[in-house]
Design brief:
This protein is an alpha/beta fold and 352 residues long. It has a single domain, classed as TIM Barrel (Alpha-Beta Barrel), CATH 3.20.20. The chain contains 14 helices and twelve strands. Strands 4-5-6-7-8-9-10-11 form an eight-stranded parallel β-barrel, surrounded by six helices. Strand 2 and strand 3 form a beta hairpin. The radius of gyration is 19 Å and the shape is globular. The N and C termini lie far apart (47 Å). The N terminus is likely disordered.
Length: 352
């Protein structure tokens, strides 16, 4: 890793603190996920016992109590250290996975490693490392591999965030050559790579590109939840009025990305167990939640996060029971009806 604390490292650390402050003090969720346009067909005769409903799943070789990942959010600051450790402890107790935020800060300043280190409290979870596509172009696979190894992660998320970058004064606006860089990176980093948006969704066209690059899964991170374009517009002063809800809504993004032969993580504004059920029925293999997890850990530590996850699991079990789904594989085949804008989108995009 790059030795010493340079100006870039200090700016990155300051940005992480600013992000946490903006999220804590402002409304940052914009748009709609279109999950409300998905109606799971109620089965009055489910022909199963609620006690037999099994929410467990295996994803990327790891067992989960339910198809849920605590999406990567932060790292690189003292506040982030407490957040990551609290989320990791909750993930370990609840039997789900967790990701950290971008590790650019610790590559620039190795002293920040402990703000991402969680293996002592979460030895068994699937842990997602994180780096931006811009930094895949900047750092060598060896430098990034060292950062992944340093925190004991299993999988590496490469976040794709053009909408966020253009609203940062310090953003990287050059996405030319990103596909070639990602392909070379996947071939050389030595870890499974997941392509991940940050709240603006992934289209079928982009999904096909990242698949050809060699990623092992796609995290759609659709619009309708936290808008990182808006968050960074509050930092920079740039007007994001017409872009705070920009992107492919989560439900549409799942439809866009399924069927390409890659596992799909449905995320972006997922807030309930019924949302999780809808994502799985639409074609996702896993789901991700970020902002409510952050709010829970800040309000009540790991215990509050565990209670929230238990609520999600209960709601998911109820939705599975009422669709006649004994397990996640059966939930993937549950009947649903698309309405409103999602139905229009699916028709026009040839997704039905």
């Amino acid at each position: 890793m790059v030795a010493g604390v340079d100006a870039d490292a200090k700016l990155t650390e300051a940005r992480k603190n600013e992000h946490l402050k903006v999220v804590a003090e402002n409304k940052v969720e914009w748009g709609e996920t279109w999950l409300d346009d998905v109606v799971l067909v109620h089965q009055t005769m489910p022909e199963i016992n609620l006690d037999d409903v099994d929410t467990s799943v295996t994803f990327l070789g790891h067992a989960y109590a339910l198809p849920l990942n605590i999406s990567g959010m932060t790292g690189g600051t003292a506040a982030a250290k407490q957040i990551n450790r609290g989320l990791a402890e909750a993930a370990q107790r609840a039997g789900v996975s967790m990701g950290v935020g971008s590790q650019r800060a610790m590559i620039s300043n190795p002293a920040l490693l402990d703000t991402y280190a969680v293996r002592d409290v979460a030895p068994d979870i699937l842990l997602f490392a994180n780096i931006g596509i811009s930094h895949v172009k900047k750092y060598s696979p060896e430098q990034i591999r060292a950062a992944v190894e340093a925190i004991g992660a299993n999988v590496l998320c490469v976040h794709l965030n053009p909408a966020q970058e253009i609203f940062q004064n310090e953003g990287d606006w050059d996405f030319s050559g990103a596909a070639d860089a990602l392909k070379t990176f996947c071939e050389n980093v030595g870890y499974p790579v997941v392509a991940k948006e940050v709240g603006h969704g992934i289209s079928m066209e982009s999904a096909k590109i990242v698949k050809e690059c060699g990623v092992v899964a796609i995290d759609v991170q659709g619009s309708g939840g936290t808008s990182w374009a808006y968050i960074d517009s509050l930092r920079s002063g740039k007007d994001a009025t017409n872009f705070k809800a920009w992107g492919v809504p989560t439900a549409a993004a799942i439809l866009e990305c399924k069927g390409l032969g890659l596992p799909v993580i449905g995320s972006g504004g997922v807030r309930s167990g019924t949302d999780i059920a809808k994502c799985i029925a639409l074609g996702a293999d896993m789901t991700g939640i970020a902002l409510p997890m952050l709010k829970a850990v800040n309000a009540g530590g790991p215990e509050a996060v565990v209670l929230y996850i238990e609520k999600l699991k209960t709601e998911l079990r109820y939705a599975m029971f009422l669709t006649g789904s004994r397990n996640i594989e059966e939930l993937k085949k549950a009947r649903y009806v698309l309405t409103g804008r999602l139905a229009d989108w699916a028709k026009q995009r040839g997704l039905l």
